[in-house]
Design a protein that fits this description.
Order of helices and strands: HEEEEEH
Structural class: alpha+beta
Radius of gyration: 19 Å
Helix content: 40-55%
Shape: flat
Strand content: 25-35%
Amino acid sequence: MQRVTIKDLEAKVENLNRLTNSPSTYSTKLDDGKYRTNVGHYHLYQAYGGVELHRTVAKSFDLLNTAFQGGVTCPAWTGCVPKRQAYDLLDAFIHGIETGKQVLRFKLKISSTNIETGKGER
């Protein structure tokens, strides 16, 4: 079994961003020189010798009601885990999304067929 590197994990996350049509970068530089956080972007967080999948979700506010951006969620709910475990989790997460897309395409195909033939629920 080969060692899993951060580069391997980043390639998985890049694939996940592409698969979900999410932004490929955490932020975008605007014309005025400021940066805007790209909501929906998946990225890795590293702490305590482990890795966790994060997704940028929205603009957040601090106690003084001063806007700052970059709030995240942890879609896999794992906390920081070793790289090998993170690699396997990313594989499962990506496979789940791919399976969900296949099911949705199948259901849409069936419902469009039912609409065309006049069969199905009304």
